[in-house]
Amino acid sequence: MEKDDGTVRLNFSEEVAGFDVTEYPAAGNSGYVYDITTWETIWHQKISRNNVENTVLNPNGETVASVYYYNTDGSENTLIYGDPITDGSVMTLPRVVLSYYLLFAVGFSLICGIGLVLFRKNEKIRNGLEKIILLPISYLFAHFLIKGLHSSTYLAGRDFYLILLVTIPLYFALSAGRNILKKLLNKKPKITS
């Protein structure tokens, strides 16, 4: 909805749990193009019914050339305000940046694993590597819990933060499990006469 002062306001329905807005300049410096997507969550549907705040796209008075809504299913973007930016259709493609982070975690795990094999007799280095290797392993588990087998995402920042939020408790759980296992393995049976 456009207001009298030239600002464009987004009004969300009560089903919306969150949204993402991407802004970039339009061709010919005719203003800015905004790509918007929304999502809902099971938590929002079942437990917390807090509505997302309506927001202003251009609070500093920037010219809004067009506003597109994109679904995260690979369909074409829908023009919801302004003039089209091309003669044809516009489509937002998923990002694959999480795949690079996943490959980095696999590589780092392999390097730590090789280090564990090479330094298996040096207890100090082995203990350090055992603690370090749990971090990329935690990230790998968190990635598969959040994204499954597919790494492509339309909301890379949000998904990455979710993966990190799951990685932290997983790391502490794996560390605690490692410590408990070490104590159990190092426990010597008492000899009774």
Describe the structure.
The protein is of the alpha+beta class. It has two domains: 74 residues, no CATH class; 90 residues. Helix 2 packs antiparallel against helix 3 and helix 3 packs across helix 4.
Number of helices: 4
N-to-C terminal Cα separation, in Å?
87 Å
Strand order of the largest sheet: 2-3-5-6
Average pLDDT rating: 84
β-strand amount: 15-25%
Secondary structural class: alpha+beta
Taken together, the total number of domains comes to: 2
Radius of gyration: 25 Å
Largest sheet: 4 strands, mixed
Number of strands: 6
In the predicted model, the low-confidence regions spanning at least 5 consecutive residues are none
Q: Into which percent range does the helicity of residues fall?
A: 40-55%
What general outline do the C-alpha atoms trace? elongated
Q: Which series of helices and strands comes N to C? A: EEEHEEEHHH
